Amino acid sequence: MAMSGSGSETSGDITGGAVRGPGAIPAQGLEPAAQAADLLPNLLEQGLRRLAITFVTHGGAVLAKGVPVQRLVQVARAGVGFSPVSDAFGATGAIDPLQSLARPDGDLRLVPDLSSLRALDLTSGWAWAAGERRGLDGQPYALDQRSFCRRWQQTLSHQGLETLAGFEIEWMVGRTSPDGAWRPAVPGGPYGADRLVEGLDYLAALAEALDGASLDWLQLHPEYGAGQFELSLAPATPLEAADRLVAARLLIQRVSERFGWRCSFSPLVSPELVGNGGHLHLSLQRQGRHLLGGGPGVAGLTREGEALVAGLLQELPALLPLACALGVSYRRLAPGRWAAPFQVWGVENREAALRLIPASAAGEPAHLELKVSDLSANPYLLLGAVMAVVEASLQTPRPLPAPVSGDPGRKDGGTAPRLPLDLAAATAAFEASALLRQALGERLHSTVAEARHAEIRRCEGMEDQALIASTCCWPVVG
Ligand code: GLU
Ligand code: MG
User: Fold this and answer.
1) pLDDT tens digits for 427-446?
2) Ligand 1: which residues within 6 Å by Cβ?
3) Ligand 1 atom with minimal separation from the 168 CA
4) Which of 64, 157, 199, 417 is the most buried (most CB within 10 A)?
């Protein structure tokens, strides 16, 4: 149940009540401090005593600061300190000194966006909010990923385009044995009802946590790999979709930990298993008209729909370091794992990096799935960049190649083009993209590239086995 900022609408139900539903922003229009003052009594009434404020680094890790909820007014106004060096943290937490952000000085303020506030764990009294970083002067920080996503969402909206997005989260639950090998925690076959039943208490606890946080979800079930599960989050604005991904990941981690298991969002946990994807679903409308269906073009695309698919397809290699940020991401991207490593699009084709899903009889609009992405992506950077590519594609339309049906690895007369085979090749494409350089701004673009180079250096010379093991429980290290 959603909770508003006014006392009369408090759910009063600490175990089942959520802090607030997405989009329900009762204190809208008020200054953050006034919003916070408005919210505080309800938070306390629900037993929420602490607030975790998070942001996602260039490298895709979620970092947090915790504050007493009693300080909400002050924190909403001025934020909490966070060092800019955090965007130089690598996949295992180490700071590669060659990055320009790897310096001990400077500070920023991480300010919670109260519209994202929700319960993280009602039992232990923790709430959660997404934060944005500002300079000490209160001005937006040029490298802040969530502000970047917000700007592009606004840009598209000013051009009459409404974007909806939703992530699918795949993860594995397991334990690491003394020899360091990964052992699945829940038995059962691919998509198996047996795994559903074996893990029923776990999935029920997770569903309860999601509902408690007002995190709308569409599907929750076993995936193909051993000990693997999948959660599909309901579509929302890009900012909200990225927030939901962050919050959902934390809830999955929390519930897994309660069951005594490790959960891994690593793109590849073991060389023998399939990978974990973090697929991004997108739909766009102009004045209520869907761009990806009901049109005169191929597969029912509108002319604008064709242009945006063509533009995304063209820019995919450059987008890849934002969609797949770890060295091990590229070990997942092998043909035959449904990780979609080909630079093609197709209708309902699970090996195409861009999969068009036509409108369903049940009324779900046609949408596009960026199937290649994994959970090392910073969702704010990825969505912001995708929106920038959409905008450029509509400004300068290019012809759309034919869709690929069947296995792109066995196309008539050869194989379809592969996406970059490693992080170094993908980073080179990212660095060469004038479009992304302009969309991100020089400094955000170059520091993200620096972070990818640090990851490339970390992985240098590692055999597959060692590389996979080094991020086996990602993002948990140690
Ligand atoms: N696990 C696959 C991946 O790595 C995706 C499977 C599917 O949902 O089609 O992306
Ligand atoms: Mg899946």
Assistant:
1) 999 999 999 999 999 999 99
2) 170, 224, 274-277, 332, 337-339, 350
3) 8
4) 199
CA distance 206 to 14: 17
Cis preceding-peptide flag for 475 (omega within 30 of 0):
yes
The closest residue, in CA terms, to atom 9 on ligand 1 is 338
Domain coordinates of the chain in residue numbers? 11-141
pLDDT tens digit string along 298-356? 999 999 999 999 999 999 999 999 999 999 999 999 999 999 999 999 999 999 999 99
Atom of ligand 1 nearest to the CA of 278: 10
CATH of segment(s) 11-141: 3.10.20.70
DSSP 3-71: --SSGGG----TTT--S--TT--TTTTS-HHHHHHHHHHHHHHTT--EEEEEEE-TTS-EEEEEEEGGG
- Taken in order 43, 150, 339, 420, the sign of the CA dihedral is negative
Note the pLDDT of residue 51: 98
Which pLDDT score, from 0 to 100, does residue 478 have?
64
The Å distance, Cα 229 to ligand 2 centre, comes to 8
Q: Candidates 168, 330, 370, 371: which one to mutate for ligand 1, based on the most atoms within 8 Å of Cβ? A: 371
Instruction: Please state, rounded to an integer, the average pLDDT across all residues of the chain.
Output: 92
What 3-state class would DSSP assign to 355? Answer: strand
Length of the chain: 478
Atom index in ligand 1 nearest the CA of residue 274 equals 1
Tell me if residue 187 falls in helix, strand or coil: coil
Q: How far is CA 221 from CA 192, 396, 423, in A?
A: 9, 41, 31
As given in the structure block, the two tokens for residue 109 are: 């303020």
Counting atoms of ligand 1 from 1, which one is nearest the CA of 374? 10
Q: How far is the CA of 232 from the centre of ligand 2 (A)?
A: 9
In contact, 122 and 109? CB cutoff 8 Å: no
pLDDT score for 360: 84
Question: Other C-beta atoms within 10 Å of 359: how many?
Answer: 16
| Least confident window among 165-169, 229-233, 363-367 | 363-367
